[in-house]
Structures are given as structure tokens and as C-alpha cells.
Amino acid sequence: MSFLTISHLEKSFGVTRVVKNFNLDVEKGEFISLLGPSGCGKTTVLRMVAGFETPSAGNITIEGREVSSLRPNQRNIGMVFQAYALFPNLTVAQNVGFGLRVKGVPAREIAARVEEMLALIGLPELGDRYPFQLSGGQQQRVALARALAPKPQVLLLDEPLSALDAKVRVSLRNEIRAIQRELGITTIFVTHDQEEALSMSDRIVVMHQGVAEQVGTPFEIYNTPATRFVAGFVGTLNTLDAKVLDPSIGRVKLGGNEMTLGRAIPPGEALLGLRPEMLRLGAHPGEAALTGTITELDFLGSVIRLRIDLGGQPLAVDLFNTTRQAPPKVGETVSLALNPSDALVIGG
Ligand code: ATP
Fold first, then answer.
1. Is 267 near ligand 1, meaning CB less than 6 Å away?
2. Which PROSITE patterns match (predicted)?
3. Residue nearest atom 1 of ligand 1, based on CA coordinates
């Protein structure tokens, strides 16, 4: 049995079902992200795990114990929110020790644990400061220390980085992941930022309109998206309408080009997904060839981003600037190569 299991979880507000038959098994020490656009129900799932929201149906167990009927403070869960929810009138040390004080832990033990936590988050000197004397990133580290101080079984993070500026966000990402690994604490992280989810998670749950559309490692989610929504939401994807000429070998016609995918696909119309970085300039033996005209070119340093007109359908192409050859020019007609197995055929 998994460390944390969520089965057939449902939540309705009035007549609106915002979480629909949500199922998830989380292993001990795993870092799971719930990823999806605003309003898809990810926070509601997290709040049900925390106990702030009562499920309309379904079960949540932690180490085999059903927790759905327990109050938040009986669940042994630590939580960090988006907005800095530190107590403004308490010092950093008092904030970090708060959960332990509520539990009646002796003062000496609290002091030791607070010191340990402040060292863990890299702020050993700041125990006497008040929250207003800290930067946003420091406040979120303190919020993390406060959540971890009582040694919860599960850590829940609700968009903890979204209020921070871009640079701090990236460094705190790595720091949170390093602390999570060091403690081996089972973590569920809510985010609408695909880069955060891809870079931090052991596995990602992509949510859409209350449904978990796909659960997988970042690699699986990016490379083999299960549905059209997942394909479009995670990473940049060209979606191209194609006419299937021979379903048995996957021969398709798209934008004045024909190519063979080398695998059977459903007959009729197909929606193909091509990642911009999967295409290369020139002809390559054994690869499919597409011809189109460059309509835009952005030189970004490490990457040259092209926009191609493929017989009426736009195609974004990212070329890596590895050859140091002068890039092609707008208006040129170019040949592009693609490994046919990299072309996604999107269903769902
Ligand atoms: P965001 O990133 O914007 O927080 P989310 O994916 O976390 O989005 P939820 O906050 O879980 O989404 O909300 C899912 C849906 O449920 C939304 O349509 C929201 O308006 C609705 N909702 C959430 N809480 C309540 C509530 N207490 N009463 C009524 N509707 C609610």
C-alpha cells in the first residue's frame, strides 16, 4: 500500500463539481506536483488532503489511516501557502516554534528544534527578526521551516513561489527540493507553472476541469502527453491538422507536405503534435522532410526561434545555435527534418 492514497475523491460546491473522481497513490518521500490552469481544482484537492475542505465523496489515507474525518490539526500535515502567512507580531524563531508550542512541547526542545530548522533553511542568524524585516524569499523559507518544525508526515505546498520575483523563485525551487530530499518528506506541491512542475517533481498530475488527465514523471508528461490538453499545457507544441493517406503506415499529408510516421494511426483526420526543438534544418537520412517558408526569426543567443509557414499552417521551430553557421533569413524556403517517432499523434 502507498504512503498516501487518494481514491475516488469528489468535491462539489453547490451544483458545480470542481474535483471529479480524483485518484492518486503517493509513495513515501515522493515529490508530487498538481499542475493545471487556474480554477482546475488543484487547490481544492490540496485543501481536502489538509482537512480545510470536506470531500463530497471519496477517501484519503495516510499510512493506511483514513484521515477524511479528522480535523486539520489531527492529520500531522505541514502546509505552506502562497501569501506569506507568517504571524507578523511574532519573531522568526517564534513563528518557527509556533506549532510545537501549540502541542505543548517543552521550551528547551522548541529552542533546539527552531535552531535546527533555521540552519536547514540557511537563515541561522535571523531568529530575532520580525517578518516585515525579511525579503519575500526569506519569509517563504521561514514559512517552510514553520511547517516542517513539528515533523509532519506530509508537506503540502500551495503555490509557495508564485508571489516571488523570477530570480528568487528559481533559487528557492532548488532549495525546497534539496530540503525535501534531505528530510525525505512526502510532498504535494500545487502550481500552475509547468517549468516549476517539470524541474521539481518526481511525478506530475496534470489537472484540467477537475480531472487528473495524466499522472507521470516529468519526462513522460513532456514526451508522451496522453491528451490534447496535456500536450498543449506542458511545453510548447505545434499542433497541425493532417489528412491520413494510409493509416497502416501512418502516411499523412500536412500543409502541402507528406510524411510517413512508420506506425499505424487511426484513419481520417489526425492532429499531430511537433515540439519546436524536434525539428532541424536540412535533410537527414531516415528522417521525414518538411518544406516551408520562414516568416519570422528571433535570434535568442543559444536558440534561434523560427516561425515557418507550412502550406498555410504555422510551425514554430527552435534551432540550437551549436553550429555557429549564419542563420537562414526571413523569406527563405527551407527543408526541415524530423524523426518520425518524435511526432505525437494526439487523441483525447
Ligand atoms: P487557482 O490556481 O486559481 O487557485 P485551482 O486550480 O487551485 O486554481 P481551485 O481553487 O481548486 O482551483 O478552484 C476550483 C474551482 O472551485 C474554481 O472554479 C473555484 O471558483 C471553485 N471554488 C473553490 N472554492 C470554492 C468555494 N469555497 N465555494 C465555491 N466555489 C469554490
1. no
2. ABC_TRANSPORTER_1 (PS00211), ABC_TRANSPORTER_2 (PS50893)
3. 38
Which ligand 1 atom is nearest residue 45's CA? 11
We report the CATH number of the domain holding residue 330 as 2.40.50.140
Residue of 44, 53, 156 to test ligand 1 pocket, by largest number of atoms within 8 Å of CB:
44
Q: How far is the CA of 60 from the centre of ligand 1 (A)?
A: 20
In short, whether 38's Cβ falls inside 6 Å of ligand 1 is: yes
Cα distances (angstroms) measured from residue 202 to each of 7, 25, 221, 236? 20, 13, 11, 21
Whether 137 and 182 map to the same domain: the answer is yes
Last residue of a domain, one of 182, 209, 232: 232
Domain of residue 327, residue span: 237-345
Q: What's the structural domain count of the chain? A: 2
Within this chain, do residues 221 and 251 fall inside the same structural domain, yes or no? no
User: Which residue's CA is the closest to the ligand 1 atom numbered 30?
Assistant: 13
Does residue 179 sit in the same domain as residue 261?
A: no
Q: What are phi and psi of 79, to 5 degrees?
A: -135, 140
Distance 85 CA to ligand 1 centre (A): 19
* Among candidate residues 201, 232, 263, the one where a domain is terminated: 232
CA 273 to chain centre: 20
Residues 223 and 300 in one domain: no
Tell whether 227 and 251 lie within a shared domain: no
Instruction: Quote the strand ranges of 247-332, DSSP E.
Output: 251-254, 257-260, 269-274, 279-281, 288-299, 303-310, 313-320
**Same domain (yes/no): 218, 82:** yes
ipTM above 0.90, yes or no: yes
Tell me which amino acid residue 239 is.
Answer: T
42 within ligand 1 shell (Cβ under 6 A):
yes
Give the gyration radius of the chain's Cα atoms: 25
